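A reminder before we start the practical. When you read a complex entry, don't treat the lines as separate problems. The point of joint prediction is that each chain is placed relative to the others, so the output describes one connected object in space. Small molecules and nucleic acid strands, if listed, are placed in the same frame. In the example below there are two entries. Take a minute to note the order of the lines before looking further.
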Amino acid sequence: LSRYREFAADRGAAIITARPSALASALMKISSGMHQIPQKDLRASSELSAFYIFPPGVKSAVGGLFSTHPPMEKRIAALERLEAQLQGTTA
Amino acid sequence: VGFFDVLRGGSRKLKQPAPDRLFAMSTAAVTMDTGLGLHPAGKAAIVFQPLATSDFDEIVSEMEEVLQGTGEETGTEIAKSDDEFGYRWMVLSDPDVEDLVVGVNAISTALIGGGYGDRVLCAVFAFRDDKRPFYWIYNYKRGTFYPFVPARGEQQRDSEAELRLKAQIGAELPIEPELERWFPLWGIPI
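Here is the predicted structure of the whole assembly.
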C-alpha cells in the first residue's frame, strides 16, 4: 500500500507542477547510483563494460525485494508515461 | 547473456543488433520536426576508432569514395576530423535526415563488413529546438538511441530535457533503457 501511495503522490505532484519530467529528474538526482545519467564521456567509458563481473541489473533485483518505496526506476517510468500523456504523443 | 558468458567475456561475441534500428531515426525525425518543434540540424556523424593497418585504411578510403559518389546524387557532403580521444568523426551534412541515416549506415556497414564492428563507437544525429542544439546518440553495440542535451557551462547536461525527449519520442525510437549508459560526448563537433 505504501508503494501505491508513493505513485499517487508522484502523480499529484507532477500534475500540480505540470512538469513530470522535472520530478523525474529530481528523483533521478536523489536515486542512488544505479540509474543515474552519467557525466563520463562515452569515449572514456567504452572500455569499462569489459570489467563488469556481474551484469547490471542483478543488484537492483535483489534490492527490490527489501525496498518499501517503489523502485526508483518504476516511479520514473510512471512519470514518463504521464509526461507522454500530457504531451499527447502516445496514441 | 548468462552469468558464465559474462565471466568468459562472452558479451564480446554478441551479434550486432539489427541494423534497421538505426533507420527508426528517419521517421522519428519527421515526428520531431512536424509535431514537436525539434528540427534536424542537417548534420550527423559516425564515430569510430581508426586502426593503423593498411586493410583498415583501404576500407575507409573505399568507403569515402563510395560516399563521395553517392553524395553527388543525394547532395550529402562529407568531412572528417580526429578528436583528442583518438576517435575519427566522419561528419555528413545534408538537410534530408533520411540521406544522413543512409550515409551513416553505409559507413558502419563497410566497417562491420570488414570485421571492424568493434571499432565503431556510435552515430550522432544533430537537432535543435527553438533555443539550443541537442543530439540523439546511437550506440551500435546496444542498438539503442539516447538523447544528449548539453547545458550551459563546462561539461553540463540537461537531464530533465533528456527525460522529456525520451517520453516524447520513446514510442518511435528504440531508446536505451539503462540510463547509466546514456554517456555524454563532450564537445561534439557538429
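Discuss with your neighbour: Helices of chain B lie at 3-7, 20-35, 54-74, 97-113, 159-169. What might explain this?
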